[in-house]
Amino acid sequence: MPTEILMPALSPTMEEGTLAKWLVKEGDEVASGDLLAEIETDKATMEFEAVDEGVIGKILVAEGAENVKVNSPIAVLLTDGESAADIGETPAANAPADDGQIARPPLPVDGPGTPEPEPKPTPEPTPKPDETRRLFASPLARRIAIERNLDLAAIKGSGPHGRIVKADVETASAAPKAAAPASATPAPSGAMPTGPATETVLKMYEGREYEEIALDGMRKTVAARLTEAKQTIPHFYLRRDVQLDALLAFRAQLNTQLEARGVKLSVNDFIIKACALALQSVPEANAVWANDRMLRLKPSDVAVAVAIEGGLFTPVLKDAEMKSLSALSAEMKDLATRARDRKLAPHEYMGGSFAISNLGMFGIDNFDAVINPPHGAILAVGAGVKKPVVGKDGELTVATVMSVTLSVDHRVIDGALGANLLKAIIDNLENPMVMLA
User: pTM of the prediction?
Assistant: First the structure.
């Protein structure tokens, strides 16, 4: 029996992707491990390998096809003794029936084209306007309907047995909506509105000149994850100032000595090291939230936000507490370069327990960063600026001061524990030679 090749989930957050390029054509023989296609996920372009051997009998999705759902068929593989005549009808990769779910709903036993047998129960009568009925809709269709304030009962489904899928909801949302009555039914309990409906926003700007920008996979993922973070994570914030003069002097000294090796340390390299060591000093804070439990990590896996065109990555420096400053610097430069080229593999930006977001190079004095779940905390780093300070002996002097804000998930880290973690970070930054001990 011909085997369907399905759209792979190349990262834990991937729901759909773009089939950027086929590396095989119909009639080609492939073996396990051969490259079949290049897939664009929400974060990167990755190569997709064959799992079985056989012959590519039919390609179902053309190059450049966007929004192809995970686990939907993209090609058909023929094995020994099979031919193209054995393929029959195969659902298209973006067929609304699947809608990106991992497991498809049960289908009738009868094959394609076989008339549906007479159902045993009495056929369901057409519901009356005031009569409640069970609605069959995919989770994605339900979510879109909630976001766009659509009534699923008024939408006709095109999926198996009238199931409402994404395409049905999007088509319905594009049509003019009837005005809601004054006593409109409130949104269902638990629904989280994300803003006014698209049609409402468009109407606000009628007659104004604007450019409509479609959301790519990365922007959709960033929007979804940060909305989830602010709606579900109980953030609290701890702020401190750091005096950087000792660190800047020590950095200049090290850079002079490392110049012959082509190494130039940045302040950010010291911040990464300081956070990694602080997580070892305060191990209770080196934890992540896992819904019904917490995971306390042994190593310090520190993520660092990297801005790229259209979004951002948070590559993770694993075992950062064990690496030298020069090793951290080289690894961070490599990760940042490949992040901007969208060449990172999922294991390079997934995981970690703690993150750093540094906007100091943009002249930002201080800010509050949003926690990237499931991390327990994120450090927002501002610019180092000259400020008047009171010295240890009470004299007024000038120092380079940097403001930092620790955003903390209160489910994982309580106030006193967060304060201890931030103190450990600052102690490392203000006494940089300790980090080499």
Answer: 0.63
